[in-house]
């Protein structure tokens, strides 16, 4: 399964996450940072099971985390 949503789908999912979960994206990114060191799909499963997230929301959070981590490495 692809790790990447279209840019529009990704942004739409991110915009809905705070309303659906009661937590801001920055909070979720911190949770991922402090969580276990796993591969992409394993992190998605971890978020789903540990934090009761929908698959799409968990995938969007991990994708955003990976995008931001890659951007930090380029600086």
Characterize the structure shown.
76% of the residues lie in helices and 0% in strands. It is built from 4 helices and no strands.
Reconstruct the topology from this structure.
Elements: H1 7-21, H2 25-34, H3 40-51, H4 55-74
Helix pairs in contact: 1-4, 2-4, 3-4
Key terms for this structure?
76% helix; 75 residues; globular; mainly alpha
Tell me roughly what share of residues is in helical segments: over 70%
What separation lies between the terminal Cα atoms? Answer: 30 Å
Helix/strand-derived category reads mainly alpha
Give the total of beta strands: 0
Overall pLDDT confidence? 92
**Percentage of residues in strands:** under 5%
For the biggest sheet, the summary is:
none
The SSE order reads HHHH
Shape: globular
Please tell me how large the radius of gyration is. Answer: 12 Å
How many H/I helical runs?
Answer: 4
Poorly predicted runs: none
Question: Quick summary of this structure?
Answer:
The chain is mostly helical. The protein contains four helices and no strands.
């Amino acid at each position: 399964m692809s790790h990447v949503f279209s840019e529009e789908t990704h942004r739409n999912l991110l915009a809905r996450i705070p309303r659906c979960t009661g937590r801001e994206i920055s909070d979720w990114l911190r949770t991922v940072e402090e969580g276990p060191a796993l591969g992409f799909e394993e992190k998605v499963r971890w978020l789903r099971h540990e934090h009761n997230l929908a698959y799409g929301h968990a995938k969007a959070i991990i994708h955003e985390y990976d995008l931001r981590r890659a951007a930090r490495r380029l600086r």
